[in-house]
Design a protein that fits this description.
The protein is built from three helices and eight strands; from the N terminus they run H-H-H-E-E-E-E-E-E-E-E. It is an alpha+beta fold. The strands form two sheets. Strands 1, 2, 3, 4 and 5 form a five-stranded antiparallel beta sheet that branches. The chain has a three-stranded antiparallel beta sheet with strand order 6-7-8, covered by helices on one side. The radius of gyration is 20 Å and the shape is elongated. The N and C termini lie far apart (49 Å). InterPro entries: Pilin-like. Keywords: Membrane, Transmembrane, Transmembrane helix.
Length: 136
């Protein structure tokens, strides 16, 4: 009987503390957006190297836009891998950058114009200055 009561108490505590976290998908959406931004910046670096062109990344509070050009003043929209005319990543409605990264570009060797970092709900996005390595 004591074991049954203890089991019910543990289940009750877990239900009160842990269950609400499973139903709040804001954490999952912000992590997904951060992963998508990191993957897109890696793609931008690879395109810069493959096409020997500049690829610019412009950030707003809740989106990232990638453009290409022959110089650091990129003007043409980068085509996304799925064939869309513009490569724009928009965050879900309740997700924004806590620390917005500065706009930058990758040169034809894949090096960024500056070291860049940003934060999305505790998930860091960093681009190394010399190598262009994009990581958390």
């Amino acid at each position: 009987m004591v074991e049954l009561i203890m089991t019910m108490m543990i289940i009750g505590i877990l239900a009160a503390v842990v269950a609400p976290r499973f139903f709040d998908n804001n954490v999952f959406q912000s992590r997904g957006f951060a992963d998508q931004v990191r993957a897109s910046l890696r793609y931008a670096q690879k395109v810069a190297i493959a096409q020997r062109r500049f690829v610019c990344a412009a950030f707003t509070n809740n989106s990232v836009t990638l453009t290409v050009g022959a110089t650091a003043a990129c003007g043409t929209n980068l085509q996304s891998p799925d064939g869309a005319a513009a490569y724009v990543i928009v965050a879900p409605s309740n997700v924004t950058f806590a620390t917005q990264p500065a706009n930058f570009n990758f040169n034809e060797f894949g090096r960024p114009s500056a070291a860049v970092s940003g934060v999305i709900d505790g998930s860091t996005i960093a681009v190394e200055a010399e190598t262009g390595y994009v990581h958390q």
